Each structure stands twice: as C-alpha cells, then as structure tokens.
Amino acid sequence: MKYLRDVILTDMDLLFQWVNETEVRKNSFNIEMIKYENHIRWFHDRYQDNNCFMYILMDNDTPVGQIRLEYKDNIAYIDYSIQKNYRKKGYGTVIIKLIENKVREIYDRTILVANVKKSNIHSIMRFRNLGYSCIEYNDYFEFSKEIDNTM
Fold this sequence. Notes:
alpha+beta; 34% helix; 151 residues; globular
C-alpha cells in the first residue's frame, strides 16, 4: 500500500541523506551539497512553519520519497524527490497524485506549482502526463494545476 505520512522530527537525518544524493543535487536549482548544520536549521524552520507541509511517501513500511508543499496565498509550491533505489518505477507519479488528493481533502481550491529544470526530463514528462499547464523560462519550466475539491 502506498500512502503519504507526515514528516516527523526523526525523519531529519533521512531527508538529509536524500537531499545530498547525486541526482537530487543535479536536479535542484542549488546544486551544492547541503551542510548538515544548514539542513538542521532549514528542517526546523520548515517543520514549525504553518504554511509548509512535509510528507514521506511510504510503500507499506518502506519510505521511498518525500514531498513538500509551501503555501503562499492560494498557491502551493511542490518540491519532491524519490529515493534512488525506487526511481523509474512510477513512484513520482504516485507521490504527485497522492498530494493532489491530500490537497483536495483539505482546501477548497489550490493551485499547485512546480519549477523543474529543463535537464530533469523525467519530472517534465511526469507533470505533462498529469495534466499540468506549462510555462517555459530560460532554464526551467513552471508547471501548474488547479486543484478543486469538487473535482
């Protein structure tokens, strides 16, 4: 069974391992390795932020990815990654569909937005296949989709 669970404090080190994985850094807008002390500060800031929601994608009892929503007005910015051993197995699509469902349960109307580097072909294809609108910029695409709980 695949589902999202809330991030808990003890996930901090797991998220630190995932964020510094080679492909994650390559597909991030900041490609530098993250220092642990910076990660601790970032994690606690986001964990306490009422406009930030962090989840772990679980496949039964195994954590396979993470997704974060940061809300500003009616827009929720998506950041997600899949653990390297589980990539190219459909988990990216699963995590996005699950977050769309979670947003529908909580909010009347939200626009999900994801900024994706042009070199991140898999995420580009995923958002296009899931019906997200796309605006092209110099070095990235901005994908967006309105989520309405009446859908």
